[in-house]
Amino acid sequence: MKNKVTLKKILLKMEYLVKNILVLGAVGQIGSELVPYLRDLYGDHAVVALDRSPDFPAAILEGGPCETIDAMDANALFEVVRKHKIDTIINLVAVLSAKGEANPQMAWKINMDCLINSLEISRQTKGAVFTPSSIGAFGPSTPMDNTPQDTVMRPTTIYGISKVAAELLGDYYYLKHGVDARGLRYPGIISNVTLPGGGTTDYAVEIYYEAIKNQCFTCNLSAGTFLDMMYMPDALRALVELMEADPKNLVHRNCFNVSAMSFDPEMIAAEIRKHIPEFRLEYKIDAVKQSIANSWPNSMDHSAAQAEWGWEPEYDLKAMTADMLKILGKRL
Ligand code: SER
After folding, report:
1. pLDDT in tens, 201-249
2. Is the Cβ atom of 134 under 6 angstroms away from ligand 1?
3. Helix (H, G, I), strand (E, B) or coil at 126
4. What are the residues facing 66 on neighbouring strands?
5. Quick one: which atom of ligand 1 is closest to the CA of 163?
6. By the number of CB atoms within 10 A of the CB, which of 210, 213, 264, 324 ranks highest?
7. Cβ distance 95 to 159 under 8 Å?
8. pLDDT (0 to 100) of residue 15
9. What percent of the chain has pLDDT over 90?
């Protein structure tokens, strides 16, 4: 099993594939943790944080280069890429599933413009691009249990449609233009630095904050709603391992199913109660989120990621819950 320390040792022994990295969406849930993680692995000045919001966390602002521009502006983005001699763009800009349904045109425009700009610039610089796909790329006609790597992709959210398009465009730019595009189908990501915003899986983050603050949580998905999830340290390591993987082994380069655990609200509550016995779980269902969750897999098969680049998660529900409650308990 590889954790961050062993990963760093492995990367130091080999010639890095990735050298100058630009992270789009650096203030978001994944970006705010990915930037320090990458700076630790590749060096502070090799990782440029970019967001349209100037509200970079102090650790990111003080830790290395930052740029405040809108990644939808192709010219401005190209200037940043040129200025910092970027060879790898990590495009984390996305309007998530539930928020996207409130304004589908806006979600489509933001998700697609940032993607196309990243791919087009990388076509011209001969660089690499990482774009996360998601469990949201699946839909109600997809097999729900142990969802295969290659299967029906008919999502019913604008977010999911943009993610299927991202997978296909990544393949297209690779095949037609030789862009080293790669991507993972992330499950819901659970973290304790920056809250996600507007996703269907957000409850699985919020529940830990409320467990610490109020010993009670009102869940917007029903008992029995199973979804794939992953703890942030695994999500960050998966990204680096994929970007550093030998390209000749990558058959599914833009669409790897990756998972670490699958649970429903009752299971996460039961795990929290092992640490906070008085914790109470109540329900107030959000119809939009419930219908999105019902259309997504209960659990994904990630054997292609295991076979093609050695994916292995470290955290299960038990280990993640202990770590989340320890970290949030100290901070809150
Ligand atoms: N976490 C995302 C969402 O819920 C799924 O990728 O929208």
Report:
1. 999 999 999 999 999 999 999 999 999 999 999 999 999 999 999 999 9
2. yes
3. coil
4. 49
5. 6
6. 324
7. yes
8. 64
9. 94
Shortest-distance Cα residue to atom 2 of ligand 1: 199
Q: Which atom of ligand 1 is nearest to the CA of 99?
A: 7
215 φψ region: left (φ > 0), alpha (ψ -120 to 50), beta (else) = left
Task: Write phi, then psi, for 156 (nearest 5 degrees).
Answer: -115, 15
Q: For residue 89, how far is its CA from the centre of ligand 1 (angstroms)?
A: 21
Domain borders along the chain are: 19-189+230-259+298-313
Amino acid at residue number 137: A
Q: Is 187 near ligand 1, meaning CB less than 6 Å away?
A: no
Q: Please write the tens of the pLDDT for every residue from 11-69.
A: 777 666 668 999 999 999 999 999 999 999 999 999 999 999 999 999 999 999 999 99
Query: Measured from the CB, is residue 97 less than 6 Å from ligand 1?
Result: yes
How far CA 297 is from CA of 139, 148, 263, in Å, comes to 8, 10, 11
Long-range contacts of 244-247 (CB under 8 A, 24+ apart): 244/11, 244/14, 244/16, 244/17, 244/18, 245/182, 245/308, 245/309, 245/310, 246/309, 247/180
19-189+230-259+298-313 placed in CATH 3.30.310.10: no
Amino acid identity at 23: V
Q: What is the DSSP letter of 16?
A: P
* Nearest in space to 221 (alpha carbons), one of 183, 177, 268, 154: 268
Tell me which DSSP letter residue 143 carries.
Answer: -
The answer, yes or no, to whether any atom of ligand 1 lies below 6 A from the CB of 157, is no
Which atom in ligand 1 lies closest to the alpha carbon of residue 200? 4
- Structure confidence at residue 11 (pLDDT): 74
Which residue's CA is minimally distant from atom 3 of ligand 1? 199
Here the tokens at position 211 are 């467990």
